[in-house]
Amino acid sequence: MFKFKSPCEKTRQIMSKVASGEINDIDFEKSCIDKIKDLTGHDQVRITSSGNNSIFIALSAVEGDIIIPDQGGWHGFKQIAKFLNKNIVPLKTDLGLINTDYIDELDIKENSALIYTSFAGYCAEQDTKAISRYCKNKDITTIEDASAGIGDKENKLGRYSDIILASTGSPKIINVGSGGFISTDNEELFKKTSLPQKLSKTSQIVCSGIDSELEDVGEKLELTLNATDYLKKHLEDAIHADKRGVNVIIPHEDAKSISWNLKKSLTTDKSGFVTTCPNYNRIKQKAIAIEIKNLDYSCLKEECLDKIIEELKINNLQ
Would you give the distance in Å from CA 100 to the centre of its chain? Predict the structure, then answer.
């Protein structure tokens, strides 16, 4: 049985001590804000009650259109944009990967924004530097959901976008069970959105957990990336096999029944780590996604990964 990712023991202990009042003399909100500033390079950071609230704050400040990838993003992008009565412009992608040539084909208003995730469908890193450079030249604000990419040691993710946000819920890389953050160099963003910020306040308990998780977030992301790369090297049909990612997506016409079989053989102590496509959050074609990001770090050893590979091959997923 595999173990589903949960906050580490150190994080749980410090959150418990803050909740009980045993620790009450540390400003954990300020501490984790300082750490996030170091990671994103931004000078303005707010801790929020969830990743979706971070998205809400970011989209509230956009005056023009909201450009959303046609797949490989997060369904909350569209839901929140609709709630805010924003005009949504779908962006064609290469199985979730953003190609700036496709943005050239769009008719968009001034003061518009592109919102996307660090990893397309969690399986392939976006070229955030190129996307940011292109959009800056077009006066398009870039909003990067770096829930799965924060702490990237190669500094390719969570560094170049105008606005960087994340969820710190389970089973994210910063894994506290709730909370999130939003960062930017644009002070006007926070001046425009004072009300949603007030409605998205979180506690010192959550901040203490985020602060703890941030201490080794780079190492945790690297472990996940390496484990996913190991699987991709042993599977011939994975999409975006040459890209870094935190899951593996394998197209198959019989994805539903194969996924059912895998869920019975690759069991966990809590939620599973096998999902089925088509799924906007992954890709819009029949496929199976192996969510390495959902697994406890103790399950990212070669013997565990070899078990996954064996089960995939038994089910004709090469």
Answer: 21
